């Protein structure tokens, strides 16, 4: 069985990205200066949006990381186990992080494990699947960048995009649209993010972003 995750390779979709993205320098806005890293360049990880976003977050705090370095520290689980269960993204990256369509991403819990290994006692890694978006806003407005699980192209998922996924730990909900970004600012009706597709301070409608955040399980990670 094949699953589309993170990276859409067709030229039509990539053209659509370039048409709707409006990057800004951030000079006139109160945006957080998070370094940009692309999942698609320099030893690409085509399905590695989450670990690339984590690398961006850690680099903001002065840690000399790369997506590939962190990917080696990440736990992995098979897409489908020998017993016929799907991999649980809350336990490790599901499937192939490097390329192809046999993957279903990773939740914030395995990312937090990697983050704790890198930060040691210097920071507390705050990870949650329960925070209201207003709490995320509070952190960002206080100058704290936040990694969140979103969707490819910030498409608000429909019921058809949210799949029942039977794991060894029970039934969970996943989406083939899953993606991850780092929030760098919120101004008015706009959320600004570093998108690991290679776009800094990408603009997203705030209401849509909040809806995506909630539908994708309210997954967030930041340092304190």
Automatic annotation (TrEMBL):
InterPro entries associated with the record: Peptidase_C39-like, UCP032442
Domain Peptidase C39-like: 32-197
Gene3D superfamilies assigned: Cysteine proteinases (3.90.70.10)
One Pfam family in the UniProt entry: Peptidase_C39_2
Name by which UniProt lists this protein: Peptidase C39-like domain-containing protein
UniProt organism field: Enterococcus saccharolyticus subsp. saccharolyticus ATCC 43076
